[in-house]
Amino acid sequence: MPPAQPEHDATYEETRKRLAESQSLQRVTSSLLQKTDLSEVLEVVCTEAQRLTGAAGSTVLLLEEDGWLTITHTAGVPISSSDRLPVDGSLSGRAIRLGQPLLINDPAGQVQGDYANPEVTTLLAIPLRTNEAVIGILDVVNKPDGFTDDDIRLVSLFADQAAIAIEKSQMLKRIEQLAVVEKRQRLARELHDSVTQALYSVTLYAEAARLALAAGKHDVVAYNLHELRTLAREPLVDMRVLIFELHPPALKEEGLVAALQARLAAVEARTGLRAELHVTGDGRLPLATEEELYWIAQEAPNNVVKHARAQHVALRLEFAAGHTCFEVHDDGTGFDPAQAKHAGGLGLRGIEQRVLRIRGELTVTSSPGQGTCLRVTVAS
């Protein structure tokens, strides 16, 4: 009895295809989990969709509020020479209007006008869906033998991955926007609590000096002018610190060490406080951890300037095996840590919350007249 070679070959080919699909989707999923940049994820999605279907090109288009589709990423042959396509009047837009996959193996004459591309011979457009709505399209074009129902199934899997990546990116942007709003609200509160009140006190001393001068009480005038000068310096320091917080260096590009150096240089130049940074070892921490440590480095010297009346502050960053230590030490007036923790003052509560977010350990050593040492230890 002769062997069933054709059946064996078909089974082998089907198994090979399924294995290729599985490996391709694994690459896309791995990209989605490991990469934070949306363009990198969409590059993998488009490349894998193009390669696995045998298409000449693949494109992701996002739906805008004005009824247009914006080409976000392309691999291979583009579907259009334009960067934008209308939902009404384009084949990709037809898939949006239908809300379902669109397969056309003979697109000639299907769309007219400036948005037609005569070089597109076959097209498969799959809507990108989230829980809320259709947010865009994943297109593949120019498969030599034409697209099939099996291609719809396959590209739909890639479209699901692309939609997850886009939704994740949009969610992160919304979170960042909320964080910016929260930060601005905090700065507004600090501006009101420190600068506004200090300036109000300045006007009181200025008025007192005017009345004393009119009464010929020159010693009272001198005293009020001295107090006025002292008070005027405080809002100046606070304003400089707040302005710096609005324009911090980019941690992602420059790293924690460079950001800390820039921070201390600004503190030293703007407040007269002598500041230095000591770094032992080298390395990078997760961006979220570096951000929290950087903002601790914002708050701690800010507290030194406001409360400690210190002449010198030193930051120490030590990269060691398995952990990283970050320390802020000043030679100021010091305080009772237990009392300060109970009162929730000196910014310690905010620092404690940041340390908790990165699962670190906070130690505060201080006593009246002996300065303060704040130490944060995190796993690395």
Q: What coarse outline follows from CA principal-axis ratios?
A: elongated
> Main beta sheet: strand number and arrangement?
6 strands, antiparallel
User: Per CATH, what is the topology of one domain?
Assistant: Beta-Lactamase
Q: Quaternary arrangement of the chains shown?
A: single chain
Q: Please name the fourth-level CATH homologous superfamily of one domain.
A: GAF domain
Q: Which CATH architecture of one domain would you pick?
A: 2-Layer Sandwich
Determine Rg (CA atoms, Å).
31 Å
**Average of per-residue pLDDT values:** 78
Protein described:
The model has no long low-confidence stretch (mean pLDDT 78). The strands form two sheets. The protein has a six-stranded antiparallel sheet with strand order 3-2-1-6-5-4, sandwiched between helices. It has a five-stranded mixed sheet with strand order 7-8-9-11-10, with helices on one face. It has 380 residues and is an alpha+beta fold. It is built from nine helices and eleven strands. α1 runs parallel beside α4 (149-214) and α7 (287-308) packs antiparallel against α9. The longest helix has 66 residues, at 149-214. It has helices at 5-34, 38-53, 91-98, 149-214, 218-246, 251-271, 287-308, 337-343, 348-357, and strands spanning 57-63, 68-76, 84-86, 102-104, 123-129, 134-141, 274-280, 312-320, 323-330, 361-366, 372-379. Among the domains are: 37-173, Beta-Lactamase; 271-380, Heat Shock Protein 90, CATH 3.30.565. The chain is 55% helix and 20% strand.
